[in-house]
Amino acid sequence: MSKPEFTAGLNLAMKIPKAQYEATVAFYRDTLGFDVKEDDVSYAPTVSRTHSVRFGPNTLWLDCVDNYSQPDLWLQLHTDDLDAAVGKLADSGIHPCDEVEPLENLDSRTHWIKNPAGVVHLLAESG
Prior knowledge:
By secondary structure, the protein is of the alpha/beta class. It is built from two helices and seven strands, in the order βαββββαββ.
């Protein structure tokens, strides 16, 4: 098995309860003055609405999740070898948890994982 390389991705996702969603979008758009655009959510069946925010070199996704009671922050990682990365993570007790959010129609190989504190990461093979 090759030794995989991990790098930070450019996407951050803030999962926001429906009751706080509009105020959160307004905070980034109106209070902070960031460019906020509503985007398509057909790829993520657990997300009812999403807005993207240019957040420096990153994209912050504001995802409305109707059944959440508190916000959650999700991060993105890239690897050059997804199979080797999954093996290395398994050796550390970290296993894919793709059930957290089924993804459809993606052009890349991915898995959801959680760090030991429970923070969700999208692990995507770059290449």
